[in-house]
Design goal:
The protein has 93 residues and is mostly helical. The chain has one domain. It has three helices and no strands. Helix 1 packs antiparallel against helix 2. The radius of gyration is 21 Å and the shape is flat. It starts with a helix and ends in an 11-residue tail after the last helix.
């Protein structure tokens, strides 16, 4: 019984986000058929947000992880760009 309770608690948020993705997709189709463009866009945004929530939940990412990831990405890009040759062709508008 404890294993079932634990699995329900652990799977609750991915399951909710998967249901939200399904509902947003279904609503998007219905709104597009009925020419309700605004509601179709809103349901698309809900679907995208729930898909991102689902993906970050599967990866184990939290909101506090994103600044750390961004700082690491920025440091790596600066390191890579510091090794480019000075005569590297750069398009400047």
């Amino acid at each position: 019984m404890a294993a079932i309770t634990t699995s329900v608690l652990l799977l609750r948020w991915p399951l909710v986000s998967a249901v939200l993705m399904f509902l947003a997709s279904t609503l998007n189709i219905q709104f597009r058929k009925s020419d309700y463009t605004f509601f179709a866009i809103v349901s698309s945004m809900v679907g995208i947000a729930s898909a991102l929530w689902f993906a970050t939940g599967l990866l184990g990412l939290e909101l506090a992880d994103f600044p750390v990831i961004w700082a690491s990405f920025k440091d790596i890009m600066i390191e890579i760009l510091s090794h480019t040759p000075p005569d590297w062709p750069v398009v400047v508008p």
